[in-house]
Amino acid sequence: MKTFMRCALVILLPLVMKYSAKAQQYASPATQCVQGYYDANNYNWLTYRNTCNEAVHVTMVSGDGSNVGAIDLGPGRHDGPGLTAREVRAIGGMEAFPCPADYTAVAADDSPLRRQVSAYRCKKSY
Question: pTM for this structure?
């Protein structure tokens, strides 16, 4: 019986670990942590501020898809794409897709964001 249990454990443990790791590869978006504004102290450029106590990774995508980028923001930190309000309007707006640190915003099919989407998820960056 002990031998059977050991064999079962050896066979089942890798499967359990595989599915456990897969479940952990996604996290909830950190939308509540990022505030966008035009910073009067920095040329009135579009700026994103992390208002949470955890670091975040922010993917930024323009409305016309011509600008895609990302920034990492520590707690209380701010940064942005270096665009004025006029420049942002010219590219159809700029949308931020924040995720916890070490996660990246992806579309529903797991493809990288290349255009603005109504829903996204955060996938573990390896």
Answer: 0.81
Query: Cα–Cα distance between 121 and 68 in angstroms, integer?
Result: 17
Biggest CA–CA distance in the chain, Å, is 74
Q: Which domains does the chain have, with CATH numbers?
A: 26-124 (2.60.40)
- CA triple 120-75-108, angle to 5 deg: 5
**Ordered per-residue pLDDT tens for the chain, 126 residues:** 555 444 444 454 454 444 445 557 999 999 999 999 999 999 999 999 999 999 999 999 999 999 999 999 999 999 999 999 999 999 999 999 999 999 999 999 999 999 999 999 999 998
What does residue 30 show for φ and ψ, rounded to 5 degrees?
-100, 45
DSSP letter string over 4-21?
Answer: HHHHHHHHHHHHHHHHHH
CA nearest 57: which of 38, 70, 40, 44? Answer: 70
What is the spatial distance between Cα 108 and Cα 119, in angstroms, rounded to a whole number?
7
